[in-house]
Amino acid sequence: MNQTVCEPCLDSVTYSDAVSATEPCKPCKECVGLEGMLAPCVESDNTVCKCIYGYYRDERSDTCRKCRICEVGYGLVYPCGENQNTWCEKCPLGTYSDEANHVDPCFPCTVCEEDEITVKECTATSDARCRAINPRFTTAAPTPESNTTGATTAPQHDFPPGSPEGPFQVTDGPDTIDVSGSTVAGTATTVMGSSQPVVRSGTADNLIPVYCSILAAVVVGLVAYIAFKRWNSCKQNKQGANNRPVNQTPSPEGEKLHSDSGISVDSQSLHDQQPQTQTASMQGLKGDGNLYTNLPVNKREEVEKLLNGSTEETWRHLAGELGYKEDHIDSFTQEEYPVRALLSDWSSKDSATMDALYTALRKIQRGDIVESLYSESTASSPV
């Protein structure tokens, strides 16, 4: 009676997620159309696809559909997710939404200050508008004196709060003086030209020094924080250089490590190569200005594989974020492997750093590739 003969599934081509004596390897799923790759296909797991940004997966039809837009007067309650459409609600009293999108909730209405009046009430589709109240007219009241002609100077008046905004009259004996309340804010008016003008400033003017002080404190704190971080980083680098061991004593025994596939590995050579491999990998994955060319070969192949598993628009968007023009991007499509041609051309530039690549990937909603680069596991073929 013959025993079952097994063989490993091909990475990124076939997989097997069940223990069986009869079931063969299954073909990997391909992410097409409006789908992007969330996790690549490996020997034991199928490809995991997700809808691109702005789309969600409809469970009934298992297709990607465009996220609902919250119209004007409606705000976001729950955002559009992998398996959930946008949930909107009509803006309740005291809130408004004047823009149609699927990311903003209803905003609270503006409340006018005590020294302001409401020009336009807040509605579900527009915010309230406020205007400063015209300043009061305040003058001094000197003692009446007789001039050379025997005429008496008219007394000054201080109008109480709550006076009407429109023109009103001040009567003193036979003379009537018209005072208009439509003067420009921040100025004062005198009666009969016999007193100095009184200038009043609004509440906003008093708050300006406070805002400036807060802003200055934030800037100073930010500069101090950056200086401290740089100083601490330099200190740690110097300590790491001083504490680095000169040599390592090799293990006296060259033990053999046996894997399930039957291939033996010399533990002595594995021990010698492991620190160097880990150091190179960590240096390549740190985004502190390291060049893309310093990234390990297996990680570069993984980036290329993940981009190839997405739609053509994904790597074209990445090329745009990396600074390429449309005509240059079109030239890459003529190559046999467009993604490889793009990354190869970009890596020859001085600006081809890991920071720049991470930033571009996040802008095109491919943070999964960044997370894959930071993870220790790689989608490499088994030996």
TrEMBL record:
Domain TNFR-Cys: 8-49, 50-88, 90-130
InterPro entries referenced in this protein's UniProt entry, alphabetically: DEATH-like_dom_sf (IPR011029), Death_dom (IPR000488), Neurotrophin_rcpt-DD (IPR052302), TNFR/NGFR_Cys_rich_reg (IPR001368), TNFR16_TM (IPR041448), TNFR_16 (IPR022325), TNFRSF16_N (IPR034046)
Alphabetic keyword roster: Apoptosis, Cell membrane, Disulfide bond, Glycoprotein, Membrane, Receptor, Repeat, Signal, Transmembrane, Transmembrane helix
Superkingdom field: Eukaryota
CDD domains: Death_p75NR, TNFRSF16
Occurrences of domain Death (ranges): 300-377
Subcellular location, principal: membrane
Annotated localization: Cell membrane
UniProt repeat feature TNFR-Cys, residue ranges: 8-49, 50-88, 90-130
Biased composition (Polar residues): 139-155, 236-251, 261-282
Keyword Glycoprotein attached: yes
SUPFAM superfamilies, alphabetized: DEATH domain, TNF receptor-like
Membrane topology: Single-pass membrane protein
GO-annotated cellular components: cell surface; plasma membrane
Sequence intervals crossing the membrane: 208-228
Alphabetical list of PROSITE patterns matching this protein: DEATH_DOMAIN (PS50017), TNFR_NGFR_1 (PS00652), TNFR_NGFR_2 (PS50050)
Pfam families according to UniProt: Death (PF00531), TNFR_16_TM (PF18422), TNFR_c6 (PF00020)
Keyword match Metal-binding: no
Gene Ontology BP terms: apoptotic process; Rho protein signal transduction
One Gene Ontology term of the molecular function aspect: death receptor activity
Disulfide bonds: 28-41, 31-49, 67-80, 70-88, 91-106, 109-122, 112-130
Region listing for Disordered, in residue ranges: 139-165, 236-289
Protein name as it appears in the record: Tumor necrosis factor receptor superfamily member 16
Gene source species: Podarcis lilfordi (Lilford's wall lizard)
